[in-house]
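Before drawing any conclusions, I looked closely at one protein's amino acid sequence and its backbone structure tokens, quoted below without any editing.
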Amino acid sequence: MEISEILAQLERNPGYFPRQAVLAAVARREEITPALLKVLEDAAENPEPYASDADSMIVIFAGYLLAQFRESRAYPVLLRICALAGEVPFELLGEGPTGRILASVSGGDISGMVSLIENEQANPHLRWHALDGLVSLVIGGLRTRDEIIGQFRHLFQTLKREPSDVWNGFAGACCDLWPGELMEACALPGTKV
């Protein structure tokens, strides 16, 4: 299957999983990677055509395939998509495990995910996903638990302390790593742990 044919089959929702096209993309990883990166770049630069078309699937497939390939060139582009306003990132990337996708393409670099977490203008659910991405780095062996706990300690000091989806996600991420050593940091001022 030619690259153009693979991309055409991944472009729109056909009502079924395009298994043959996905398998062909995986088999031709080196050849298709530049085209998938271009899809992400196009979506980051001009999201409207993709976001406004409910049947458009190419950005989702690009994200998943590049995550499977562990393609680090996708990391900054996906972070730009995640920082887009409102629901646009979900319209482009779907409701899937965005944090795990970010972790897969990060090469272990946490700086982009931390920036997304700290970005108060970003969608709170995507900030939550980025927290999940940090946990995924520990699970995948790309970062140690101590490194991520250290980052959580920093986030406890920098994130605005108000009830939000970000703090809900943060609580879940903390529980995933059981950071008992952070109990003092997470306590509200004036409370005893």
About this structure: The chain has one domain: 3-186. The chain is about 65% helix and 0% strand. The chain has a mean pLDDT of 92. Residues 3-186 form one domain.
